[in-house]
Amino acid sequence: MNLREVLSVAGKPGLFKLVAQNKAGVVVESLLDGKRTSIPATANVSSLGDIAIYTYEEEVPLREVFAVMAAKTEGKEALSHKSSKSELEDFFGLCLPTFDQERVYHSDIKKIVQWFNLLVKNDLLHLLEEEGSTEDQAGAQEDAAAAADAE
Q1: What pLDDT digit, counting tens, does each position of 58-115 carry?
Q2: Among candidate residues 23, 22, 25, the one with its CA nearest the CA of residue 9
Q3: Torsion angle, CA of 88/90/91/93, rounded to 10 degrees?
Q4: Domains detected in the chain
Q5: Cβ neighbours for 57, distance < 8 A, ≥ 6 positions apart
Q6: What phi-psi label fits residue 15: left (phi over 0), alpha (psi between -120 and 50 degrees) or beta?
Q7: Based on C-alpha coordinates, what's the Rg of the chain?
Q8: Mean of pLDDT values over 130-139
């Protein structure tokens, strides 16, 4: 499993682990309660491996933000996502000092902190380390497969 297989589904709380794909959608397992459910192909599903955070210079992959958060918290849970707005923004500012305060909203920071805590609870921080090497290989394989399909 890698960070691309950890999904966020719009309108549903928490994170989900990808179990299977089919033409009608995906089957996922909740990291909150372990229940499996089917998500239709029309739902807005985002892979954590594809999400990036706006900064004033560039977009920073979420994986890198999580890695800094893990270093700051020594691999333990961060403050609660229910903390005050100023506490959350201060913590996030320590982790990513150049985040674009006009384009990264408070709700985004809450989600990121909640997701990080879910990864810690489910002992999935190891996905952050593995992602860098396997992501390049998987991306190259996907590109090659897509090119072959196009021909």
Answers
A1: 999 999 999 999 999 888 888 888 889 999 999 999 999 999 999 999 999 999 999 9
A2: 25
A3: 120
A4: 50-121 (1.10.10.1650)
A5: 98
A6: beta
A7: 16
A8: 48
The whole-angstrom distance between residue 44's C-alpha and the CA centroid of its chain comes to 14
Contacts of 39 (CB under 8 A, 6+ apart): 9, 16, 25, 26, 27, 28, 45
For residues 113 and 78, what is the distance between their CA atoms, to the nearest angstrom? 7
Contact between 65 and 48 under an 8 Å Cβ cutoff? The reply is: no
Q: For residues 93 and 36, what is the distance between their CA atoms, to the nearest angstrom?
A: 35
3-state secondary structure of 66: helix
Name the token pair of 136.
């390049």
Q: What are the structure tokens assigned to 97, written together?
A: 């000092």
Q: In what order do the strands lie in the sheet with 16-22?
A: 36-40, 25-30, 16-22, 6-9, 45-47
Quote the pLDDT of residue 109: 93
Residues of 1-19 as b/e, b for ≥16 C-beta within 10 angstroms? ebbbebbbbeebeebbbbe
